[in-house]
Amino acid sequence: MSHPQSSHPLPSPCIIDTGIIINKQDIGRLLTDLSRVRYIHSLDGKVQNEGEGCILEVFYDPHRSTMIANHTLYLNVQSFDYLQLNQSSKNETLFDLIQDNRQLRLIPLSNPLQEQYTPQLNADALEAMVTRVLSAKWDVQIDDDGECPF
Length: 150
Description:
By secondary structure, the chain is an alpha+beta fold. The chain is built from 2 helices and 8 strands, in the order βαβββββββα.
């Protein structure tokens, strides 16, 4: 038995302030916008660790770990099954990263509306710029070391 195919595709989900996000790209986009956070790590509903830190990297790689140390967070979207967005009683947005019986709750400490926008340099772009500058400097040094043919 076949079902008739609809000529209209289903609309994409629309999540506003609360909901469950399973798409890894969408999770990454939400987490990338965070900077300073308070985190609460729970296993089976029992708090294991909590603290504050800065999110330095959000990535998607099945061979790398999510790491939190020294007030820095490196978040691998692949480490979690989904993200649940909620609002606290204080009207804070809660980002709950869930994987089986583990929950990593992120509570933003910075507000993008209150912070002045400053473009962040991509690490790869910065490395490429430094490489070009050093390469140009070495070219100048090599030219200076050679004798002038005139």
